[in-house]
Design a protein that fits this description.
single chain; alpha+beta; 5-stranded antiparallel β-sheet
């Protein structure tokens, strides 16, 4: 299975993404590096926006293109549909519920089978959650020290408004589909649509 092994903070700097969007401390990006070329071509800007979304959500090109085609078929604004689809990935939902410190950690925890969706074990990070789905830490994993600490942790992150979370039982429910303003980093999705429409 292919995976991205690039240094996270270096990639954040290149793409202009705040390390906080990746789940890292904002102070981690103290060394901004040398001067960069400021003027980019139109294609360069479109490509950067696409790479930014792929990097933040940890999606490779083939899967991202499949999501774009699905978003195009959905009707309505293709860019917003695409962002809604990537936001509804199970690994991202686990991260947004605060059950993992970063999206990369969330993907690994999902792969190892620590979560259930509607009571069924799911170990596919790209699994698309739907309205009224209940995501929970599996019974077997809830006795794990890592998840016990989550219940006791006071610095629990705030879940977005489209998710409802119960800290005591380590469960979350999808109460609405994510909207454009629920995205936690800056992105110009229209540039991605323009890139794929070429």
């Amino acid at each position: 299975m292919a995976k991205n092994t690039q240094p996270v903070l270096k990639r954040c700097r290149t793409l202009g993404v705040s390390p906080a969007a990746m789940g890292y401390n904002k102070e981690s990006n103290r060394n901004p590096g040398g001067k960069r070329r400021t003027k980019k071509s139109e294609y360069g800007m479109q490509l950067t926006e696409k790479q930014k979304v792929k990097f933040v959500y940890g999606i490779l090109e083939k899967q991202f293109h499949t999501l774009y085609e699905k978003a195009e078929r959905m009707g309505g604004n293709t860019g917003e549909n695409l962002l809604s689809l990537v936001e509804r990935r199970l690994d991202n939902v686990v991260y947004r519920l605060g059950f993992a410190a970063t999206r990369r950690e969330a993907r690994q925890l999902v792969n190892h089978g620590h979560y259930t969706v509607n009571g069924k074990a799911v170990n596919i990070p790209s699994y698309q959650v739907s309205l009224n789905d209940v995501i929970a830490v599996s019974e077997k994993s809830s006795s794990n020290n890592r998840f016990k600490k989550l219940k006791e942790d006071d610095a629990f992150v705030a879940a977005p408004k489209w998710l409802d979370r119960d800290k005591n039982t380590l469960t979350g429910k999808v109460i609405a589909l994510p909207a454009r303003d629920d995205i936690d980093f800056e992105i110009a999705e229209n540039l991605i649509v323009e890139l794929y429409s070429r």
